[in-house]
Amino acid sequence: YLGNNPKIRVLDFLMDNFALDFSLPQIAQGSNVAYTTLIDLLPKLLKQKIIIETRKIGKSKLFKINLDSPIVKALLAIDLKLSEAAIKKEVAA
After folding, report:
1. Are 49 and 66 a contacting pair, CB within 8 Å?
2. What is the pLDDT of residues 70-92, one digit of tens each?
3. Contact of 49 with 63, CB cutoff 8 Å
4. How far apart are CA 47 and CA 88, in angstroms?
């Protein structure tokens, strides 16, 4: 419903796995977004506080979706409504 661009795929991956934190290569692989594209998206997502850095393991930084962000709360609500609509459509078919 929201399209198929890299930013949406990254957000979808992180929202689906909201309880976990991931390294950048893991996010790139899980969201099927090129690592270099993710590197370009990262500063804006961090500035908007949509994702947050959770910890460091060695040289790797780990990130997760920021559940305290009003933007993320709205996106999760939209995601839930879209999922409910898809289930109702599938049941009706």
Report:
1. yes
2. 999 999 999 888 888 888 888 87
3. no
4. 37
52, 63 Cβ separation under 8 angstroms:
yes
CA dist., res. 5 & res. 14, Å (int): 14
What would the two tokens of residue 50 be?
């949509």
Give all strands of the β-sheet with 51-57 in edge-to-edge order: 22-23, 60-65, 51-57
How far does CA 72 lie from the centroid of its chain?
9
Q: Which two tokens stand for residue 75?
A: 């996106």
Cβ atoms 9, 31 nearer than 8 A = yes
If we measure between CA atoms, which residue out of 80, 74, 67, 65 comes closest to residue 11? 65
Residue 88 tokens read as: 């109702």
Summarised one tens digit per residue, pLDDT across range 23-48 is 999 999 999 999 999 999 999 999 99
For the chain, give the longest Cα–Cα distance.
51
Displacement of CA 4 from its chain's centroid (Å): 13
